[in-house]
Structures are given as structure tokens and as C-alpha cells.
Amino acid sequence: MLESIKEEIHKLKTDKLMLIVCLIIPICVNLIIGLELTKGVIDHVPMAIVDYDDSQLSRQIIRYFKENESFDVTYQIQDEAELQKLLDESKVRVGMVIPKNFSADVTSLKSPTVLMMYDGSHMSMVSVAKAKASEILISVRVGAAVTQIENRLDKSYDEAFTMAMPISFETRMQYNPAKNFNYFMTPGYGTIICQLGIAFMAVVSVTVNWDKEKKRNDLGYILGKVIFYGILGSLAIFINLLVQIYMFKIPYRGSFMAGVAMSMLFIFAVASLAVAVSAWLNNRVLAMALLGLLLIPNSIMAGYTWPVISMIPSYQWMSKFIPFTHYGDNIRDLFLKGKMVDGISDARFLILYLIVMILLAIVGVTLRKLGRPKEADDR
């Protein structure tokens, strides 16, 4: 085992590419992601407004949108055809059409309709814009109803508000009240980058040297590879956790040691997968292609960005066997909630996964030894 570790240490000293791929690139990419998401929220979504009414009420609604940081009202135009053209050309992502006689219809209780148009090709912008627009328009609707009740029924403001809003709703956004995308995305994405660097180096680590086969202990050889790349990957994740917490100020509410332990279990599991693939496949290009196929879809199939419960049943089943499924939500929960919901069971899975991959790697090396070329036996 020690000889196997020494072999990889020698590679690290002599092959600078390994250091770049395993440590420098993951750290740099995490810095880029963190800086990209520093603002944390989507704002100044470009918007166009068609105001057919041009009344005091319609101008007041427009002012509400202009004053809200979520929107950037860049166009006030004459008709819907022009608005559609702006949406088609991606010059705006949101459009609003205030109908003719809007104010008069409100006064006469005719319930006019304000049309909101969204560019569905940019769902992240649309989700934020739609929520903010709904808040503004609901406030306008309630305000108009209160005014009508005050004037028509001669009620006080409090009485009118109670009649207009007979049921009151209170919303509490817990753990991430600012709806900060940086808090939501970065903890897991940082690990995805780290795992790729470690995996693509480990997947070419296993070799079959015929001169040393009789002396080499396969278990120790495989363990040495897994331990080396597991420790190297753990170092990369540890640095990135520190960067996320202290540089980008992502709140970390849980036990730091629990986060480190879970991260180490995860990266050791990934390293063991890469070593197992390397043990079975002598062709390095094929090994890297297979590993990429196994690891690159992680963030999608593991449910980190799109929930597993919303996937088709076959994907839900497959996600159970992806290491990141048992890590991503846990590390995010440690950051934002302060605890892991399924930490113990997920840790057990990662340990079992690690053991199974090590056994598969040993089997792979054994089969490659049995298939040694004839000239190796004639020496």
C-alpha cells in the first residue's frame, strides 16, 4: 500500500499537470463560480410596458415596477406587436400590457385584466420576475379594493382592508430568506468541480506491470491509489469550503467537522469509482469517457438543482446509486440548516459504495493479470 502511495506522490512531484487538474483548476473554477454568484439574486430584469390607458392609476403601477430593483423598465411602447418583437429579439424578458379604460373599469368594479408576458426561454429570470410582479399587482389590487370599499360603504381604512382581505397570509422564508442563489448553488457545485479533477487523474492510475505482479499485493495497491486520491481530493474540497465560508460569506450553520467528514467520505467514494474503472479498462481514453459519462450528469440526476421527486421513476431509482445524491443535499443542509437530515444513512451508503468499488477494482486487476500477454509468461 505504501509503495502504491509513494508511486502517486512521485507522479505528483514530476507531473505538474496532476497538481493543476486536482487542485489549482478546481479552486480557480470555484472562485469564478463564487464571484459570478456574489450578488446572489437576479435583479434588473429588462422589461417593456404598453400603457393603453395612460391614467393616474396606470402610471402609478408603472412607477411601482420602476422602483422595484427586480425590474429594469427599459421600454415604454405603443402596442403589443412592438412588445412581442422585443421579446422575440430577447431585448426584454418581461412585458406588461395595461388595457384601455383600465382606471375607469377599476372605478366601476369591472375587474379589468393586466396582461403579463414572460420570456419562457429564461426560466431563472422568469421565476423571479413573476414572483415580484405578482407581489406588486396583488398590492395594487388590494389597494384598489380598499379604496372602493372606503368610498362606497363609508368604511374606515382598517375596516375596508379587513373586508378586502378577509384571510391574511403570512410567509416565512426560512434558512435562505434572501433567496440567494449563491447560498443555494455554490456549496455543491464546488464539490462537483473537485470530484472531476480527482476522478480524471485517478482513472488512469492503475497499471499492470508484469515484472512486479508476483510481488505486488493487489489489495494494498488499490488501497494506496484510493487513499492518495481521496486525501488529495479532500484537500481540494477543504480549501473550497474555507473559500466559500470566509471569502464569499456563505453562512455555515452546522458542524464544520461534520462537513469535512462527509466531504471526505464522498471524495473517497469518487476516487474508488475512478480507480475501479481504471482497474477494469486498460484503454485510458475509454476509461476517461466512461468515467465522464458516470460523473458529469451528477448535478442533474442527483437532484441538486432539479428535485429527484420530479424526475421519471427510472431516474429516481438510478439516482440512489450516485454518490453525489448522498452528499449534495447534506452539505447544503449543513450550510443553511445547520444539520444533515439523512446524514447517517447517507454516510453508510458512501462507506458501502467505497468498499464495493475497492472490491471491484481488485477483481478488475485480477482479471487483467489472468489475461497477461504470452510474451510476459515466457520471460
From TrEMBL:
This is ABC transporter permease. Its main location: membrane. The chain crosses the membrane at residues 17-37, 181-206, 226-248, 260-281, 287-309, 349-367. One of its GO terms (molecular function) is ABC-type transporter activity. Coiled coil: none annotated. It is a multi-pass membrane protein. Keywords: Cell membrane, Membrane, Transmembrane, Transmembrane helix.
